[in-house]
Amino acid sequence: MSQTLSPAQTAAALPYGRLALEIKTLLQDPSVQVPPRIVQPLHGGGSLFVMPAADQSLAITKIISFIPDNHLRGLPAIQGDIVLVDALSGQRLMLIDGPTVTARRTAAVSLLAAQTLAPCPQGPLLIVGAGVQGRSHLEAFHEGLGVKEVWVASRSESSARALLEYAQELGMQAHLANDPDEALAHCPLVVTTTSAQGVVMNQNPRPDAFVSAVGAFTPKMVEWSAEVCQYLAQVGLLVVDTRDADHEAGDLLQASIDVTALPTLADVLRRQAAGELSRATPASNCQGPVFFKSCGWAGWDLAAARCLVTQVLPQGR
């Protein structure tokens, strides 16, 4: 009989460090198959995402909605579930809270990218967007990189202050950033997690910066200005999470950048394993920032399901 996991149970079984390691392992697994996700536009400006993935023993289907103005309704922007089944028998093993997995696996991907590429992984960290993803990235970078200082910018001052208070509860130094562009000067780690309905970042990051741009995951969404993205393409290192970003990376596509020519996170990890890349390589080779574009991929959800199987089900099944 399958289990249904609450958000709290899901979060407890997905510590960021373990999840980042499982994501790294999954990227080296040739049995993993992830078809393109289906994005169904909804009346009112939202989207419905259907995202399957499978390896040699497990299969998932993630069904979530993204409604960018749900804060006006007092509802979360992302809602839905993940169904986990046995790939051999087809038996349903688990029903998992979709928003919790989305928050934690997205932050774990950013953590893995920062562990691999950030020239100054100790921070301070700038978070732009103080919603669910802002909180999960705060947790992930604090837990996985030991970041002790954070600046937070948000269109909602109450949301920003709530995240600052949470950072202080974690023992971090926390500052309100009234202007995120000005805060770039203080922070070699930058994460943007806005609703991506318009440009919020107009200044160039520091030469030693690592940026994880999370909010814009469709061609029409954007957080970073075209001018900044073009500058980064000239002087920095641009990396995308997967090849799905070729047609989803709104920030880069709107800047007329050839996304198909950019390396993926898997490409970077392969180069690192072959001894062709070290953490210092981007800064020393490019003399400029690292810009990691995260668009999302059902493979990250499959990695989370793998963690949950080993943590929750008896004998891993």
Would you kindly provide a written description of the structure presented here, covering whatever features stand out?
By secondary structure, this protein is of the alpha/beta class. The chain has 2 domains: 3-101 and 298-316, ornithine cyclodeaminase, domain 1 (2-Layer Sandwich), CATH 3.30.1780; 108-293, Rossmann fold. 36% of the residues lie in helices and 24% in strands. It has 11 helices and 15 strands. The chain has helices at residues 7-12, 16-26, 98-117, 132-145, 157-169, 180-183, 226-235, 250-254, 265-273, 281-286, 298-312, and strands at 3-4, 38-41, 47-54, 58-66, 78-86, 92-97, 125-128, 149-153, 173-176, 189-192, 197-201, 210-213, 222-224, 237-240, 290-293. The protein has a 7-stranded parallel sheet, sandwiched between helices. A 6-stranded mixed sheet has the order 1-6-5-4-3-2. Strands 11-13 form a two-stranded parallel ribbon. Helix 5 (157-169) links the parallel strand 8 (149-153) and strand 9 (173-176). The protein is globular, with a radius of gyration of 18 Å. Residues 279-286 have low confidence and may be disordered.
Topology:
Elements: E1 3-4, H1 7-12, H2 16-26, E2 38-41, E3 47-54, E4 58-66, E5 78-86, E6 92-97, H3 98-117, E7 125-128, H4 132-145, E8 149-153, H5 157-169, E9 173-176, H6 180-183, E10 189-192, E11 197-201, E12 210-213, E13 222-224, H7 226-235, E14 237-240, H8 250-254, H9 265-273, H10 281-286, E15 290-293, H11 298-312
Parallel strand pairs: 1-6, 7-8, 7-10, 8-9, 10-12, 11-13, 12-15, 14-15
Antiparallel strand pairs: 2-3, 3-4, 4-5, 5-6
